[in-house]
């Protein structure tokens, strides 16, 4: 099992992106580049020869397709939320909300 992540490991931009991913209702304006930056901070990201991105965080690996526009779609948000929750980042979001750090 992976160690519990700490919010101090993330810069303000990463925390903002993380908060948007866990936001309800689901945000429709999360930029692809900020997602990649967050994933690089919390795990590993590799671009495959087919153009898809392989993201590995904790024990979970997902494949993401670069969106046509700058923002990711709702299904990608849900996939990211599930992966980050499995890696313990839901607790980070709850801690940030408790401290009043919201977007």
Descriptive key words:
alpha+beta; globular
Briefly summarize what is shown.
By secondary structure, this protein is α+β, with helices and mostly antiparallel strands.
Secondary-structure topology with pairs:
Layout: H1 12-22, H2 32-42, E1 44-47, E2 52-57, E3 60-65, H3 74-86, H4 89-99
Antiparallel strand pairs: 1-2, 2-3
Helix pairs in contact: 1-2, 1-4
Strand content: 15-25%
Gyration radius, to the nearest Å?
13 Å
**Number of continuous helical runs:** 4
Count of folded domains = 1
The portion of residues assigned to helices is: 40-55%
Shape: globular
What strand order characterises the main sheet? 1-2-3
Instruction: Report how far apart the termini are.
Output: 30 Å
Q: How many DSSP E strands? A: 3
Describe this structure in words.
Strand 2 and strand 3 form a beta hairpin. Helices cover about 45% and strands about 15% of the residues. A 3-stranded antiparallel beta sheet has the order 1-2-3, with helices on one face. The chain is built from 4 helices and 3 strands. It has about 100 residues and is α+β, with helices and mostly antiparallel strands. It has one domain. Helix 1 packs across helix 2 and helix 1 crosses helix 4.
